[in-house]
Amino acid sequence: MALFLINRYLGDENDNDGPSNESRSKALLAKLQEKARARQQQKSATEEESKSQLSGEEVIPKKKRKLKDQDALGQGQKRKKKEKLEHKDLSAETDTGENCLSRKKKKRKETKTEELEAETSSSEEVEKSVGTVKKNSEQQRVLASDKPQDLDSEESEEDEVEREKNCTKGPDGFTPVAGSARCGPEGYKKNLVPVVDIPGICPRLLKKLETNGIKHFFPVQAEVIPAILESVCHGLLVGRGGYRPRDICVSAPTGSGKTLAFVIPVIQALSQRVVREVRALAVLPTKELAQQVCKVFSSYAEGSSLKVVMVTGQKSFAAEQASLVEHSGGRNRSLADIVVATPGRLVDHINKTADFSLQHLRFLIIDEADRMIDSMHQSWLSQVVKAVYRSRSGSNEASIFRRTEPGPITATSLSQPQMPLQKLLFSATLTQNPEKLQQLGLHQPRLFSSVHSRLPATDSPSTPDTSQPQERFNFPQGLTEYYVPCTLSKKPLLILHFLLRLKFSPVLCFTNSREAAHRLFLLVHLFGGVQVAEFSSRLSPNERKKSLKDFEQGKIQLLISTDAAARGIDIKGVKCVVNYDAPQFIRTYVHRVGRTARAGKAGLAFTFLLGIQEKNFLQMVRDAGSPGVQKQIVKPENLKGMEGRYQQILLELENVIKEERAKKRKGLLLKDQSTRSQRRVASESGLVAWNRR
Ligand SMILES: Nc1ncnc2c1ncn2[C@@H]1O[C@H](COP(=O)(O)OP(=O)(O)OP(=O)(O)O)[C@@H](O)[C@H]1O
């Protein structure tokens, strides 16, 4: 209120003996105008002065000049500015969507300014970076020496310079992951960090890593493991300096080793715990992924007292309950230190398993985070957070490590140390959309990323909405992408040609629906000569598990799948991915092709494209930052030899499908009859019971 009492506008005037109101306001206006003029003059004088100081540096754009001026400011002012920035960072947590949007707009403006700056920067610098990129692209050429014609040659160098810039220069708060530009397996090896060079890992874990054949950490692991370990350097109960640790978001390519990047530091941090409580919770979108992560956790927890429990609905609810808590000696005890779960089953346990407690949760790991954000409508996260801050019955509220839901930072909120909850987010296609990220309630998130959003070229005619920044992702370094122009009727012959003639194996093939996957499976099976299996929600979890296992063990040459196997699944030795149906979304493409070229290995990805799909697909992939999808033509004469048998198989296929449908109808009919008769029996027995009464 004091601000409103400043008498500046009234000046010397006195209410009693001054001029009338009208003349006073005129005088006031004149005075203000005079002041404004004076300020303007002063400002232009300062600018002139700084121009003369920076003689010979005329090319420095306005923003840089401003920065230089600021450099000349005193230390005290700088400190004030830093404090302001930190404050801004802290308040980010409570930002509204609107604030996020306005910041987003501001960021876009800044990006534009940066681009302008880059244009005017010295040619020497540009030459240097072109040199580096040339080296990288040469390595890539070695990898794909048998490539057919390169459709993307026009955009190559400039785009690669741009990509390189994106890889090495992250926006504020982003830590670039080294060695992210695609440069083939050789380039990948250069960025490995010896395991022993990362401090804070106990001898047991080091031994385990060695046993598992891991001598070096991948770049993402070398960056993220120390960051997580640093946040627990004062133990699990308080963050560094008593402050809540920053949440961590990691966006790194498929197959770059994100799983170990959280498994190792979490196991290391929890190995110091005394009492067993659930202190780490990993949430994954599917049962298969949860199983995979649980396996890695269990492998590294082996030999310690840590217990890993999986709750995905694979076992009965009662069996899962029994693995989570036990009742002994008049009290309930947690049987798990680390829980790996799918969101639906987790919420069921939060609500229905008495004494399943998340009140000691220290790490919440959200893998495939962008997909998990999309499933946020199930409100699983808010239920987890509620369970974390739920007050314990009979708990001592005065306990020094009490837990209260974090709110705005005030002197009072900082007076008591808080047992922190730290969120760790991982994805190959992590969204940088602030509105989406806001749903996760992140605390001063620290982002580890090799690429970041970039505005699409405004003059690009095929970009429909220029207001939305095009998200760019990093592709595995050993991946070579191709597209194969084809017609609808030739697609099945193409996949057979890949396996029977070109001898590609093992091949993971994606369709856009489970019906398409099943039909193609039947067709290849009837054609013969290829060991084939399918993977989709048509199959039971156990059947799916068997398909994956057989494929991994080399019993299956071709696995035909829906997008159920597109994300996160780590199948060793997949040499080739085929997009039998072109994916509709770029994220789907990134994850599908990411099933090959994992862990620095080389791999091939082919996308079958109908004429009508070509333009949009290539544009979509190029906009997302792919180094280029090359055209691979399969000549019609190469397919001729298989056509006769194929036509015959098509007839057989129709019959098989008809039979399957008839069986299904019969099965449904029988099921329906048995339910009806069960109901009849129930109602009759009810009637008898009623009559007896
Ligand atoms: N340091 C390492 N040295 C050798 N192999 C490793 C290392 N780290 C991870 N791997 C292997 O690399 C493969 C890919 O790892 P992981 O599944 O964690 O990748 P990811 O980044 O999570 O991929 P996606 O985004 O597809 O889920 C796994 O088979 C894993 O065993």
UniProtKB/TrEMBL annotation:
Keywords: ATP-binding, Helicase, Hydrolase, Nucleotide-binding, RNA-binding. Residues 125-134 have a biased composition (Low complexity). Its EC number is 3.6.4.13. Residues 239-448 form the Helicase ATP-binding domain. Residues 151-161 have a biased composition (Acidic residues). It catalyses: ATP + H2O = ADP + phosphate + H(+). Residues 9-178 are annotated as: Disordered. GO terms for molecular function: ATP binding; hydrolase activity; RNA binding; RNA helicase activity. Pfam families: DEAD, Helicase_C. SUPFAM superfamilies: P-loop containing nucleoside triphosphate hydrolases. Belongs to the DEAD box helicase family. DDX51/DBP6 subfamily. ATP-binding RNA helicase involved in the biogenesis of 60S ribosomal subunits. The Q motif is unique to and characteristic of the DEAD box family of RNA helicases and controls ATP binding and hydrolysis. This is ATP-dependent RNA helicase. The lineage of its organism: Eukaryota, Metazoa, Chordata, Craniata, Vertebrata.
